[in-house]
Design a protein that fits this description.
alpha+beta; 8-stranded parallel barrel; 16 helices; about 20% helix; binds alpha-D-galactopyranose
Length: about 750
């Protein structure tokens, strides 16, 4: 997988279909040479153009700055000549910034070293190249880690910076990856935007000499972006084009940028956001950056998605849950909000159990003295016995009698002013000197740089988990960080607070999972504000968005699925009239939509009309039998985008052996005077005949709830129950009838004959 060409002094890292090459130049610099589709040769060092003016410094010392400013670099330094985006910057005791990294040594090892305190990919077989660079003036060693796995087209990179000298240094920038790619012209940069209830919208911007920057300043990855930057060839779409994707395994403030430099090279960079970041590096100390995931696909965005999905399922999500059936759950939040007690919960559980639901999540409101609204009790992680007499133990026993398990909501990073915790430790709150911290959802943020606060949270959560069998934990975070001052950290370490918050968060989740290995954690942050690969390491599913309206979810899912496996998306059936949009959506559409993800319900099932209650067992049985295996193990294809065409959305899931597939088609607003829609399937076996069947869960929007007349046409152009070959379905396509009903949807099940 990793080869060193001694003569050419190049390192070549091969994945099944890609190659990555870097080289030694002028005996000491480390230029980037190539990343893309697999190539046979190891010596491509001519691509660095070091034999062109201004030439390498040993040939032309008079123009060293010019060399450093154009050479494609693996890990560019600040302050000494490369004026493009730097990957590393260090301040010395004199307050000056600048360093120059030169080659010291390298080693190739089998396997992959762990990243202390950080989530990171794992699994065999893989190989790691460690190139050690140094700055002989600052006495700094910088280890560049590159890992390749032999089963997927992904390469990971991270960096460890070690202070080998006697001076205290300050790291002001330490990105995880920098990648200099030649410009072909017409490229676009892919980033993400969004906000609460409208998360994960892909944004394409023409690449050029103006830097395109994506970053978070919220202490979390945020609703409004992804720790990701991609570069797409001209007109790349879901099926075609060259796509580079860089994704950071990190849950705090990130920084990504792309800029075309004067000599037609595109520099991509990704890592911890240098704003707010200043890390004290004492003599002998080291700093480990988070890991970046790099992928290249020449099969468009769809190719990138499928590679990332496979990589995350096989090499990032804890294997205890990655491919394991997740419980079908019911969450009481939108059913009751804060207004519940044991009796109400058990009435929901009774209905849920009859339907075959596995687990009840008791959401916000079960703890502290008074949590009848968002203003109190965060931090007081003990059961409110007035609301839940007998506590969690009694509740879990009752659930057990109904064949169900218990899940509990926590928001461990937060504290309410009206709480025992705040009264005891007002200094555990993030706060700038002399200022009242800004409230958000009426709560403050705990200072996780303080180990006492972190230990308190571990102890209080574990106390609950030990008091009764709790199978699932929903970890929420309902506000961003600000006022980031710590009463705990000394003056010259305040710049470490944002990263230390994330390290504290990781330490707690790591401890919980090592003490309770079967626990299923679902991360959440006001919906999808912390949906990132760092969280995915701990939690195989993440709450995608508070917005469960299927029309909105189609657009939220599109962005999320670009990067994350479908099984990672927490997805619930909402009420008929959605609480966020006010939109009324037919039951079939709400159910089908929620089935594209890790499935559950979030409505008061005790109040469902009797005819809808009787449908629940069929929905759950279908999800468990057909959908869940396709989601856990299968491949994902996007066939159409409601966000792009404004009319309909279509996704497909195909089993790895291509013997079975599901297509979910969702119509937006019904169009007047419309005809049926042609969709071409993907990923099937061209030679195999498939039997086609429309999924009927008894709530068929086709027959029961809308008036059908001759303008609608027969289901699937008369092919429902029919048979077609993979090449026909992919080449000629299928007609999905137009139905005169807003938000109508259908699901088609294909099985190899
Ligand atoms: C956040 C979550 C919701 C719910 C509420 C409870 O908004 O995203 O799912 O848990 O908090 O306060």
């Amino acid at each position: 997988m990793i080869t060193y060409n001694e003569k050419a002094k190049t390192w070549k890292l091969d994945t099944p279909h890609t190659s990555y090459i870097c080289a030694l130049a002028d005996g000491k610099y480390l230029p980037h040479v190539y990343y893309g589709k697999s190539v046979s040769d190891t010596d491509l060092s001519y691509l660095t153009r070091t034999d062109e003016g201004p030439f390498v410094p040993s040939v032309n010392p008079a123009e060293k700055q010019g060399f450093l400013d154009v050479c494609p670099m693996e890990y560019p330094c600040s302050g000494t000549g490369d004026s493009r985006e730097a990957a590393i910057s260090i301040e010395n005791e004199a307050g000056q910034e600048g360093l120059e990294l030169t080659f010291r040594s390298f080693r190739i090892i089998d396997g992959k070293p762990a990243l202390p305190g950080l989530p990171a990919s794992f699994g065999e077989p893989c190989q790691t190249l460690v190139i050690t660079m140094e700055d002989t003036i600052l006495h700094i060693a910088v280890e560049l880690f590159y890992t390749v796995f032999d089963d997927v087209d992904v390469l990971t990179r991270s960096t460890r910076i070690i202070n080998e000298g006697e001076e205290t240094l300050f790291l002001t920038r330490a990105l995880s990856v920098s990648l200099d790619l030649p410009e072909a012209g017409g490229e676009e940069v892919l980033t993400f935007s969004g906000t609460w209830a409208r998360e994960h919208r892909p944004v394409r911007t023409p690449a050029g000499p103006t830097a395109i920057v994506t970053k978070s300043l919220r202490g979390e990855s945020g609703h409004d972006g992804q720790p990701f930057i991609g570069l797409l060839s001209e007109n790349a779409d879901y099926e075609n084009g060259k796509v580079y994707g860089l994704h950071l395994v990190y849950s705090g403030d990130y920084f990504g940028s792309a800029r075309v430099n004067p000599f037609a090279s595109n520099r991509l960079a990704l890592g911890i956001n240098p704003d707010h970041f200043r890390w004290k590096l004492l003599p002998g100390a080291d700093f480990q950056t988070p890991e970046a995931v790099l992928t290249y696909s020449d099969a468009g965005l769809g190719g990138m998605s499928r590679t990332l999905h496979d990589f995350y399922r096989r090499h990032l999500i804890r294997q205890r849950w990655a491919f394991e059936n997740r419980p079908v759950l019911i969450n009481n939040w939108e059913a009751t909000y804060f207004d519940f007690n044991t009796e109400k919960l058990l009435s929901i559980a009774e209905e849920a159990s009859k339907a075959g639901i596995d687990l009840l999540v008791v959401d916000d409101g079960w703890f502290g003295h008074d949590r009848s609204e968002p203003s109190g009790s965060l931090g007081d992680w003990f059961v409110n016995e007035q609301k839940l007499p007998g506590g969690v133990h009694y509740l879990s026993q009752k659930l057990h009698e109904n064949n169900m398990k218990l899940g509990l909501w926590f928001e461990p990073e937060m504290v309410s002013e009206n709480s025992d915790l705040y009264r005891a430790h007002p200094d555990w709150v993030l706060k700038l000197h002399g200022r009242q911290p800004a409230r958000c959802r009426d709560q403050y943020v705990l200072d996780f740089s303080n180990p006492d606060a972190v230990n308190y949270i571990i102890l209080s959560i574990e106390k609950i988990l030990k008091s009764a069998p709790v199978a699932y934990l929903k970890w929420d975070m309902n506000r961003p960080l600000c006022d980031a001052g710590s009463a705990y950290l000394p003056v010259d370490q305040q710049g470490e607070l944002w990263h230390r918050h994330v390290l504290g968060l990781y330490r707690i989740q790591e401890t919980l999972l090592s003490d309770f290995p079967d626990l299923l954690i679902e991360n959440c942050s006001s919906g999808g504000a912390r949906f990132d690969p760092g969280m995915l390491y701990y939690s195989p599913q993440i709450w995608t968005s508070d917005d469960m309206d299927p029309i909105e979810r189609a657009m939220i899912n599109e962005g999320t699925e670009l990067l994350y496996p479908v099984s990672a998306m927490g997805s619930h059936v909402c009420k008929e009239r959605n609480d966020i949009t006010g939109r009324r959506v037919p039951l079939a559409t709400r159910v089908f939509s929620a089935m594209i993800g890790s499935f559950g319900y979030e409505l008061d099932i005790t109040e469902l009309p009797a005819e809808e209650k009787t449908l629940l067992p069929g929905q759950i049985a279908f999800y468990e039998k057909v959908m869940r295996p396709l989601i856990l193990f299968g491949d994902y294809y996007r066939l159409a985008s409601l966000a792009d065409n404004g009319r309909y959305d279509a996704v497909e899931l195909v089993s790895k052996d291509r013997s079975e597939a599901i297509v979910f088609f969702l119509q937006g607003l019904a169009q007047p005077n419309a005809k049926s829609t042609l969709i071409r399937l993907q990923g099937l076996n061209p030679e195999v005949a498939y039997l086609l069947e429309k999924v009927d869960l008894g709530t068929d929007a086709d027959s029961a709830s809308h008036e059908k007349d001759f303008t609608d046409g027969p289901a699937l152009g008369g092919l429902d129950g029919g048979r077609l070959h993979g090449d026909t379905l992919m080449g000629a396509g299928l007609h999905v009838e137009h139905v005169r009903e807003d938000f109508w949807s259908t699901m088609i099940h294909l099985v190899k004959e």
